């Protein structure tokens, strides 16, 4: 009897030891995971932190203390940058170009993806391949032919010289993301809509478009970032000062002799605010759109 009790006690102690060791390993693993994730977050956010604090420095302070806090915080760098390089006009031009290309991209990509995802036709695979190949074309390799084309069409120094190329290069990725998302929508909803008397346009606007908000949010952020930050197309296609976008206006702070780092970084800080606000507004929907189709059922 005593031997059975001792054996039971020994087994219970061993199980408790194994369970305790497993809990310690799991806790250590979680601590290590969150520690590495925190380090990665700090490394990722540091460039933005450096940009903001450097925007308050003078050139002398920037050279002496490139990674330190400003010795004197020059808040007037922002007002000087805004006024000296006409950032207000450039800001408005960038908003107009980015919004214009974004609206065209969303409208065309949504209609195209709806057809590719919900209908079967003969050349469907070839059309999808065509758009996938479009994602592989280097954007800057098209500058010369696009410049010649824009000149022949008399579109140079107009907003359309930027809106149309931005839309064209954003469409392949937008169609790829939206098609993948719409394919995962159950066909029962489509059949029920047809039974209720809904036509194709009603199906698109009332059902498919509202359900594809996560994918649309993903496309919105990706397309907006590309058109907002682009420098090369604006530099080649726009010469009028009144039509210059934000990247071109910020580039005015640097010339062949010197660069005013305080004003340049202040302008960059102002230009990055809309992208941060846009991401914060759509981050949840963007995550849903990027993971759409990963799990089916």
UniProtKB/TrEMBL annotation:
Membrane topology note: Multi-pass membrane protein
Residue spans crossing the bilayer: 32-53, 95-116, 128-148, 160-182, 203-225, 261-282
Record protein name field: Raffinose/stachyose/melibiose transport system permease protein
UniProt signal peptide: none
Natural source organism: Paenibacillus barengoltzii J12
Biased composition (Polar residues): 1-12
Similarity field: Belongs to the binding-protein-dependent transport system permease family.
Principal place of residence: membrane
Matching PROSITE patterns: ABC_TM1
Xref: PANTHER family: ABC TRANSPORTER PERMEASE PROTEIN MG189-RELATED-RELATED, SN-GLYCEROL-3-PHOSPHATE TRANSPORT SYSTEM PERMEASE PROTEIN UGPE
């Amino acid at each position: 009897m005593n031997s059975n009790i001792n054996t039971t006690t020994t087994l219970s102690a061993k199980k408790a030891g194994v369970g305790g060791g497993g809990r310690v390993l799991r806790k250590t693993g979680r601590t290590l995971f969150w520690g590495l994730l925190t380090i990665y977050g700090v490394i990722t956010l540091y460039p933005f932190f450096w940009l903001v604090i450097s925007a308050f420095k003078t050139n002398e302070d920037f050279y002496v203390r490139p990674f330190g806090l400003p010795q004197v915080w020059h808040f007037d760098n922002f007002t000087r940058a805004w006024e000296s390089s006409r950032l207000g006009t450039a800001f408005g031009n960038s908003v107009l170009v980015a919004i214009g290309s974004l609206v065209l991209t969303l409208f065309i990509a949504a209609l195209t993806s709806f057809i590719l995802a919900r209908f079967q036709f003969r050349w469907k695979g070839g059309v999808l391949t065509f758009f996938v190949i479009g994602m592989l074309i280097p954007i800057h390799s098209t500058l010369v032919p696009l410049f010649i084309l824009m000149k022949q069409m008399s579109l140079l120094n107009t907003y359309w010289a930027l809106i149309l190329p931005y839309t064209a290069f954003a469409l392949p990725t937008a169609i790829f993301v939206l098609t993948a998302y719409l394919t995962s929508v159950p066909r029962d909803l489509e059949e029920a809509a047809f039974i209720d008397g809904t036509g194709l346009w009603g199906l698109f606007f009332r059902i498919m478009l509202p359900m594809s908000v996560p994918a649309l949010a993903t496309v919105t952020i990706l397309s907006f970032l590309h058109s907002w930050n682009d420098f090369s197309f604006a530099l080649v296609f726009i010469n009028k000062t009144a039509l210059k976008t934000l990247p071109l206006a910020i580039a005015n702070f640097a010339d062949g002799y010197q660069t005013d780092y305080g004003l340049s970084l202040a302008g960059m800080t102002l230009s990055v605010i809309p992208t941060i606000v846009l991401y914060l507004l759509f981050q949840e929907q963007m995550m849903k759109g990027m993971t759409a189709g990963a799990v089916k059922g």
